[in-house]
Structures are given as C-alpha cells and as structure tokens.
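Batch manifest, entry 17 of 40.
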Amino acid sequence: MHTIPLRIADPTRHDGTVTFVDGDEHVPVRWSELDLDAKAMAVGLVARGVRPGDHVALLSPTSRELVTAIEAIWLAGATVVVLPLPMRMSSIEEFVDQTRRRIEGADTRLLIVDPQLAPFIEPQPGDPAMVGFEDLVGDPGDYVMPSIDPDSLAVLQFTSGSTSDPKGVMLPHRVVLANVDAIDAALELDMSTDVAVSWLPLYHDMGLIGILTSAMVRGVNLVLAGPQTFMASPSRWMQWISDYKGTITAGPNFAWVLATRALKRLDGLDLSHLRVGLNGAEPVDAKGVEALVAAGERHGLRAGAVFPAFGMAEVAIAGTFPALMSGLRTDDVDQRVLETERYAAPLDADAAGVKRFARLGKPVKGLEIRVVDPVSGDPLKEREVGELQIRGTSVTTGYYKRPDATAATFDGDWLKTGDLAYLVEGELVICGRIKDVIIVAGRNVFPEDVERSVAEIEGVRAGNVIAFGIQGSRREGLVVVAETKLTDASAIRESVAARIRDVVGMSADEVVLVSPGTLPKTSSGKLQRSLCRDRYLDKALEAV
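Output type: structure tokens
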C-alpha cells in the first residue's frame, strides 16, 4: 500500500509529467516539480493555522493551482473538500446557495477560492477564512510531515445527487489508499508506458480519485483538462488521446456519444494505444458503445479497449472491474420476466422482448458484493434481482455528521447501495436505482428504457429526457419530461406518446416538453429524476 499522506509516491523514481490543458494551451509539469510546489503551499497552509484533521474546501476550475492545493492539503494532514462548480450559468443563485451549504456542512476551516469565482462567495459573519492560491506561499525546505492517523479523513466527497440536503461521504486515508491500490491492480498501471487523459471534474470521485489521485501516487503521465475545455469542443478529447498516445481515459455515456460524433468527422487520429476506455457514471447504453467502436475502428481504436465498470463515491470510486481489453459484454434477458418476476431470464439477443444489460465485472481487490432482497435483506441467488450491497477495505465510514443517513445505509458492515442488480458468474449487472423504478400494474418499468427511446425522436434533445412515476388515486402513472428547441410541440408530444406505447406497452399519463436547460442535473451531469418529479408536482415546470 502507498504511504500516508496521499502524495506523489517517490518523485525520484516515478517522475512522470502532468500536462495541464486550458483551451489550446498545454503546459507540461514534472510531478517532482509539482510536489515541491505542494510542499511550499502546505507550509503556507500551516502558517494560516491549518492543522491535521482540519477541513479545507476548494472552489476552482481544473488548474495547476488546484491540483497543487489538493496535494498540499494532504501534505498538511488536512481533509480535501472539492466544491462543485455550476453546470449552467442560469443556475448561479442555486450554485451559491448549495456552495454555502457545503462549506457550512463540512465544518470548513479554510476556503481556497480561484479569483474568477471569489466574487460569487461574499464573506458573511461566521464564514471560514477565504484565501486565494497566491496567498499560500512558503519555503518547501520548511515542510515537516505531520503525524497522520490512517483513519482520519483524506476526502469529504459530497454525493453528486446532493441538493438542498447535501451528504458528505467520509473517505479516510486508508479507504482512499485501498481503492487506489485496487485501481492500480485492476488497470495494471505502468509508470513507464501509461498516459492517462482526463477532462473529468475534480469535484467528482471519478476525476479526483479514479484519475488524478491514481496517477499522482504512481507518477503516471497525465494529460488533464477541465470539463469546460471539453464541452467547448468535445472533439479535443479524442485529439488529446491521439496526440499524447493516451492509454487510459474515462467518461460517462453522454461524453462517449459526443466522441462518436467526433470520430465520424475527424481524420488523422491514432487511437491504437488506448487500452482502457472506461464508460461509467451512468447506466451503460450498449448501442452507444457499439456505435463508438464502429466509428473508432478507422482510427485504430480496439474494440476491447472500451468497456463499462461500476463505481460510486461510497467506495471511493472503483467497485467492480472487468478483465482488461474485454470490451463491452452484455447479458441479454427477457424484459417481461424481469419486470414482472424480478428475475433475469436469459434470452437470445435477437429475440423479441430482449433487454440488454452491460456486464460490469467482478469486485476490485479488497471488496465483496452480494445481492439481497430489498425488504427482507436475505441474500438472493444468481440472476435474482435485488439490492446490491458492498463491503471491504475501501467502503466509506459513513456520512459526515449524519448518523441517521449512515445507519440507514448500512446492514451491519454491508453498504446498501440503493441499486437494483443481479449476479452472473460472479459478475455484476446493474438494472437501475430502486427509488426510480416505476411500478405500473405489477410491472417494474425502468425509466432508462423510456428515456432512451424518447431521446431518439427528432426534435427531442438527446440525453435530456426524464421519466418518473406519480402516485394516482388507484395506480402509479408515468410522466415524461423532455427538452426541445422547437416551438411547435404538438407533433413531438404525439410522437413521444406513440414511442412510449411501442417501447414499454403502456401510455404516459402526461408528456411535458420544456426548453433546453430546464431539466435538473447533478454537478456531474446526471439527470435528477426525484427533483424533476418534485418540480412537476409543484407545477414548477414551464412547458413550451
């Protein structure tokens, strides 16, 4: 296991390069140089009164300064709290409110803010001291490593779904290190040949721990951009992988869809070095992965390099992982049996009524998984659908100052994930979230099925559809909310209703079309079904 505190393991032996990308500017920095900068900043933190166990919050876009500060906080023995940035500029008021809630909820000792964002956080009585990166200076020669308890918090990670009631996932040093070691083993990281490429936000566990920390503690070469640079021109992601001979990258479904479009129109790319193209953070769209592989073939993309895995903040990030270069593998089951009996009955891939799920591999080193009955808690057999539970070395110790939420999340030492899942030959298959399943006439309808089918309709914004159930006087009904740019919504509404009848064999109680940017999303870009349902019931959705 790597040593505490979290930092570059040994710059004299693992001195790779981290290249910071901002727009078209690329700045390479040796890990050893960044380590010296972090020591100097750690001295500055101590001079500001930061002590082991204190919580230091960071509000900044991805930058060299942010990465330096993350390591510096660990070197000072303190806890990193990376605060989310707004998904849309229209949500600034909500962003400021949620940021304040997180700062307060984390018992923040010091707040480090990028100059661009400082105007949004006006100091108020009782606030922690607020400084900029430039205020934390010191002599790296003065750095003295503090004594750090392995059970002290390395990261306080707010769950991506947190809104008015944010929950901070507690990740001690031993938990993060155990998961980083598991990632190291699963990916077979090689400091001499691997190049990780990422634009994932550092306020999300996949970006912070899955990519940055894993690369940092091993000294693996890293090309690091911010999500704003990626979103300004999504094709850059594929170009970076080509230019830097990237071997490892990751992204959610929507990003891979954008990559597929880029691969169809770009020429001259070389993606042959990529060996890990991880699809995570959302239920995996098998058709989307297959389209990506087809589009990337002429660029040297190997089909086996692109595959899904399972992760969540409550296990630091990595939960299950398939064999390397195994590509997308699906489990094809009878949708009717699944919805009515909660059993994943195998079915031929070409048969009518088949539903495809991605196989997500086996638990990473140090973790165990099981599937239990959501009501009784009794373990289920293979292919029986129930709640996924996890235990092991990289499981969170709970939610910060939320004993109620912590108690509700654990069954003994088993973490209750809230995911509907089943096992096949020891491999995990995720069906959806328990709270999101729509129960109609004895059927368990998965909202993803509705959302994907509706997103294919011309005029509907792909990736911007939410389906949820509402409780009526006699039964639960289905409501679909979709974004569109078109002003004449009647034809689209009829097409959506017809598609729902064709795909799930039921009628929607209501189809609501809204303007782009209306649907609520988490800081990591996931659609928020529960919040959308609340706004619908409160009549707070403005239809076009």
